[in-house]
Amino acid sequence: MPTTAHTLTDVAASDATLRRFLHGLPGVDAVGLEARAASLGTRSIKTTAKAYAIDLAISMVDLTTLEGADTPGKVRALGAKAVHPDPTDRATPATAAVCVYPDMVATAKEAVAGSAVKVASVATAFPAGRAPLSVKLADVREAVAAGADEIDMVIDRGAFLAGRYMKVYEEIVAVKEACGAARLKVIFETGELSTYDNIRRASWLGMLAGADFIKTSTGKVAVNATPANTLLMLEAVRDFRAQTGVQVGVKPAGGIRTTKDAVKFLVLVNETAGADWLDNHWFRFGASSLLNDLLMQRQKLATGRYSGPDYVTVD
User: Fold this and answer.
1) Of the residues 176, 185, 215, 264, which is catalytic?
2) Which of 18, 160, 269, 300 is 20 to 30 Å from 92 at the Cα level?
3) Pairwise CA distance, residues 184 & 175, whole Å
């Protein structure tokens, strides 16, 4: 495997060099990977650490609504919740971002105005990614023009699975350019990539092409974020930084619903990539229902009891 940043800049010089690099990555020991993810998931943390972990997790949530039935009112309510997740306790941290479709960016931007909450927008013909590049780039530019701080793009899984790595690489590069100052999260849809080796290859491909974040899933397929696929991506960003000096974020999305789940993922981050990633600039949860559970657990730690069912809003 290459050992210098200079060598890595050359790996995308041609289709052949890119393929050679990606297929030269070490094969993934699936049994070992899953065993390590499971073992890290059994770690228990003390009450003081739990309070810290809950607040950290809240601050890492990309509060998401990606439904055909989204309305301006729903997006405004989501934005208000992102800024003040618990209106009865202003010490509760804000979430990292709200994530919406491109046509809802302007509404979301108004809803979080004056706060540090970012507006993320899915783009590039999300979730299937089946559109011409010109359409995908127009999608990105319109979201950015409407005020998106971050773009969550989907890769062309068909091209990737067919081994057309240069097509995927060039598309990410073009989208990154269209983002301008907005940060780019590259979604692999790990549930469709079939193997851990493919997830490792996609991670390196995304980072080589300029991803600011690599993201597991759209949340629209059967298998989304898992501890094992997230662990694999955390290893990739750790190794990429060791070789290039460039830090890339990780965003597991889909299926993370409870505080217990979120804490397991934070342990994975700490034990795999390290404390430098324990910050919402470098780690996010793509979630909709997770925030409610975090808020209920936070209140239980503070008061010793669970709130009634209407303590948190139903999204």
Assistant:
1) 215
2) 269
3) 8
- What span, in angstroms and rounded, lies between the C-alpha atoms of 291 and 301? 15
- Residue 251 a catalytic site member: yes
Active-site residue, selected from the candidate residues 118, 176, 185, 251: 251
- Is the distance from CB of 257 to CB of 294 less than 8 angstroms? no
What is the distance between the alpha carbons of residues 281 and 250, in angstroms, rounded to a whole number? 10
The contacts of residue 67 (CB under 8 Å, 6+ apart) are none
Listed range (50-54, 135-139, 234-238, 304-308) with the worst mean pLDDT: 304-308
CA distance 224 to 216: 7
Residues 120 and 111: their CA atoms lie apart, in Å, by 13
8 A C-beta contact, residue 113 and residue 82: no
**Secondary structure element (H or E) that encloses residue 187, with its range:** strand 183-187
Residue 34 has pLDDT above 80, yes or no: yes
Token pair 């907005």 is found at 182
62 is catalytic: no
The per-residue pLDDT of the chain, averaged, comes to 94
86 an active-site residue?
A: no
Angle (CA) 251-261-53 rounded to 5° is 80
How, if at all, do strands 97-100 and 118-123 pair?
parallel
